[in-house]
Amino acid sequence: MESKGTPESDFSIECFQNYTAPEVFIQGLAGIIDQQDVKSMIIAQKQMLQRFEKTNEMLTNCNALSASRLKSVGPEFKKHCQTFLEMKKDLDYIFKKIRAIKTKISAQYPEAYAEAYSNNNPLENSDMQDSDENIFQPKED
Question: Is residue 132 pLDDT above 80, yes or no?
C-alpha cells in the first residue's frame, strides 16, 4: 500500500509542514485536553494572581509603614537604652557602696550586725532557693 496517495497522509504531512516539532506536539496535546478545563485553570490562575498582587501591595505598604515607624521611634529607643545603662551603672555603684558599708559595720560591730541581719533579712523567710537569692544583687567586678 502506498500512503502517498491517500488524502489522510497528504493532510497530515501538509498540515504540519509549517510548524516546528514543539508546535506540533502542543497541537497534539491541545486536541487531547478539554478546553473547558483549560479555561477554568486560566481563570483560577488569574484570580490567584490578583490575590497575590493585592497581598504583595499590602505587604509593601506594611513594610513602608514599619520602616517609617522604626525611623521615628529609633532615636527614642536609643535614648531609653542609654537611660537604662546609666541606671544600671548607678545601681551598681549604690550596691557597691552598700556592700562596703555592710562590711565596715560588720567589722566594727560584728555581734550587733549579725543580730540585725538575722532579724531583718527578707530573703531568709521567703520561699526562694539559694541559687535565686542573689538574683537582684549585681556581680562584683
Answer: no
Query: Residue 88 and residue 97: Cα distance in Å, rounded?
Result: 14
Q: Using CA atoms, how far apart are residues 40 and 46, in angstroms rounded to an integer?
A: 10
Q: In this predicted model, what pLDDT tens digit does every residue of 58-86 receive, in sequence order?
A: 999 999 999 999 999 999 999 999 999 99
- Who contacts 3 (Cβ-Cβ below 8 Å, separation ≥6)? 9
For the chain, list the strands marked E by DSSP.
Answer: none
Candidates 123, 138, 141, 122; CA nearest to 90 is 138
Q: How confident is the model at residue 43 (pLDDT cuts 50, 70, 90)?
A: very high
Tally of residues, the chain: 141
Q: What is the pTM of this model?
A: 0.44
**Could you give the dihedral angle defined by the CA atoms of residues 129, 130, 135 and 141, in that order, rounded to the nearest 10 degrees?**
-170
